Amino acid sequence: MESLSEIINRINKEKFDPNINDNFENLDNECLVCNGARWILDDGEDANTRRNAIPCECQNEKNQNLDYLLKLRLFGLDKLKEFTFDNFRTDGSIGVSDGRNLSKNLELAKLYSEDPRGWLIITGPTGTGKTHMALGIAHACVKRNNPVTFKSMQNVIEEIRSTISTNDEDSYNILIESPFLIIDDFGTQINSNWVEEKIDYLFTYRYNRKLPTVIVLNKSIFDFNDRFQMKFSDPNLVENIEFKSKNIEIIKSGIEEIHKKSDIKTVFKAYENDKKFPIKSMIEITNDFIKKSNPMWLFIYGVQGSGKSYLSSAIANELITKGKEIFFTKMSNLLESVRNSYTNNQGNGVLYERCKNIEYLFIDDLWGHSNSNWSDELIYKLLTHRQDNLKRTVINSNVDYKNIFGYDTNKTTKIGSDSEFTKWVCSRLSNVEQVNEIQLPPRDLRKHLFKKKNTNG
């Protein structure tokens, strides 16, 4: 591999190629000093002294620009030259990125580009600016005369596959040994075992030697196998930059269309004339959850139609208006997602990891599925993770956990599993130090809402 000095020397030689300017016509803008002649006459010592032609000052600027563009072409960045730190927007006005952490991410990327050491892992949803930031790092390195290799993961895979037909691994070895490697869009590609082994070797080689590497992931770190998770999470080598998407559209939060306009005041209004129902307690508990920085959990239960899902989504909608990051999911949908992920050898999957780590999680219809030892173990691990890490959680169910505590020997609650995990889930929900309960009265809230809609109509 060429050393940095060899690369710079080759660039300087290429700069004087008589045909090179054909590729950079934009550098030929007319100079107001020399009118495009590129040369000017010096003043001379006096009127009788011969005046000499000297290069105009615009020559130096053009040579510098040409030098920079040549380096971009050498490092494969000439068609991506607009993606720099200078035009990286931190106000969230471009794409779907949440602007609240963009400035911090940009500063971290700039610091890393000044002295690339170890690994930098960039994660986040599509359209949040991950690739732009990685390219900004690459451009910053080029400006400092530091070599960099920028490749999309698809390009890496193509180079690996090309070694089969050519029996030449030079390009692959260049990636392995690159002084600074940036790989974009790694994660969801489906490859043969042989290609996977090559990719694993590439990362393992660079990891063991602590070679500067930036990797842009297109899925959660937790969706990779254990070997990659270990590498991407090593606190002794890796820095992480995480992009978050805007959460201003309710539909993106998982709330179903029918509950997009659920409103807390409507629930309070429906029960205000029910003398047997402790409406003041429900209002207090609900408002505490919305307003407190570290609220207790909510467990909402009642018969079908009593308004559990409506109240849960109304609380979620209120939090969204306050800029909170929430996710709302039916338990049956979550379990189905995990099953599909296992089938496709993707672990628990993106949805489960999101439920583990989201700021506010709303679980709709707990135990409203055909549960088993497997499903209750999954639920138990999810709730344990969130409760132990003080993650805010709202759960609603047709089933009062107290009826099944101790396996429900009379089978009155239609729970079809005698799993030990069922008891442990109930134990988590019964923790009065961390969970508040709201029991809705046995009335059909939907009839009230339908009546209200017709009255307003």
Give an overview in words:
- The longest helix has 18 residues, at 57-74.
- It is built from 17 helices and twelve strands.
- Helix 3 packs parallel to helix 4 and helix 13 (349-357) packs parallel to helix 14 (373-388).
- With 457 residues, it is α/β, with parallel strands linked by helices.
- A five-stranded parallel sheet has the order 4-5-6-3-7.
- The model is unreliable at 1-8, 14-28 and 247-251 (pLDDT under 50).
Q: What labels would you give this structure?
A:
single chain, 457 residues, elongated, Rossmann fold, 2 domains
Low-confidence stretches: 1-8, 14-28, 247-251
Measured between the Cα atoms of the first and last residue, the distance is 76 Å
CATH topology of the largest domain: Rossmann fold
Task: Please write the CATH class name of the largest domain.
Answer: Alpha Beta
Order of strands in the sheet with most strands: 4-5-6-3-7
* Strand and helix order: HEEHHEHEHHEHEHEHHEHEHHEHEHHEH
Structural class: alpha/beta
Helix content: 40-55%
Shape category: elongated
For CATH, the homologous superfamily of the largest domain is named as P-loop containing nucleotide triphosphate hydrolases
Q: How would you state the average pLDDT, rounded?
A: 80
